[in-house]
Design a protein that fits this description.
This protein is of the alpha/beta class. Helices cover 35% and strands 32% of the residues. Helix 2 packs parallel to helix 3.
Amino acid sequence: MDYSLEFDPVNKFLKARFHGILTDQVLQTYYARSGEYVARNSARAAITDLSEITSIQISPATVRSMAAQAPAVTQPGFGRIIVAPSSFAFGLSRMFQILGDDTRPNFHVVRSLGEAWLLPGVVEPHFEPIDGK
């Protein structure tokens, strides 16, 4: 499995944790379905965790294309956080953030999950695995 999904029913956070090699296809497939995951779980925010990836095989063209698409979640005020510890993942995530800034408010890129929890003021997350595929 390329990513796993968890949900915190207390804080209403959806977390997608990517594993192994992150490719254009894996990222595009997740992005296309992420709106479904959010709606199914009534999430108020989503965290995309890139901490467990071993390699990134995403092209800048894919990042530009995805940023130009309509947001997967259109709810006003919906929180979006990408956890990107590596410099390359952080750079690609920031590129996506900058290019999609007009249509994705409340979007943040951080280096660690600890930083991610500070943004919405979550004290103790309570994630449970969910099946999203």
